[in-house]
Amino acid sequence: MENEIFLLKMGEIVLKGLNRRRFEDRLMANVTRRLHPYGRFRVYARQSTVYVEPMNGECDLDRAWEALKKVFGIVAMSRARGCAKEPDAFVEAAQAYLNDQLLAARSFKVESKRADKSFPMTSIQLSQYVGSRLHQLYPHLTVDVHNPELTVRLEVRDFSGYVHAAPEPGPGGLPVGVGGKAVALLSGGIDSPVACYMMAKRGVALEMVHFFSYPYTSNEAKDKVLELATLLAPYCGRVTVHIVPFTHIQEELRRSCPEPYFTLAMRRFMMRIAEMVANDVGAQALVTGESLGQVASQTMGAIACTEAAVQMPVFRPVVGMDKEEIISIARKIGTFETSILPYEDCCTVFTPRHPRTNPKPEELDEIEQGYDFAGLCQAAFDGIEQVRIRARS
Ligand code: ATP
Ligand code: MG
Question: Is the shortest distance between the CB of 368 and ligand 1 below 6 Å?
Answer without folding.
Answer: no
